[in-house]
Amino acid sequence: MTAEQIKAARAALGWSIKEIAESTGIGSATLKRYEASQGIPKSRKGHLQLLRTHFENAGIEFIGAPDDRPGIRIGSPKT
């Protein structure tokens, strides 16, 4: 998951950084750093997987590869 995909997923869902921080336990400063990165953000605490799962549960599908047209698809939230 790239920084661009994180930004796109958050925008598609209309979520603020504060909302994501509160629902995942990932700090706001960390989320801002991820979004300001280029490519795949550096993460040591499993935050990217937690963030990915959080977005996927809301209906976001991550497509492509980091070096080959990464993007998102918007679907229905998982129940």
From TrEMBL:
Gene3D superfamilies registered for this protein in UniProt: lambda repressor-like DNA-binding domains
InterPro entries recorded: Cro/C1-type_HTH, Lambda_DNA-bd_dom_sf
Domain of life: Bacteria
GO molecular function annotations of the record: DNA binding
Pfam families in the record: HTH_3
Domain HTH cro/C1-type: start-end pairs: 6-35
Protein name: Transcriptional regulator
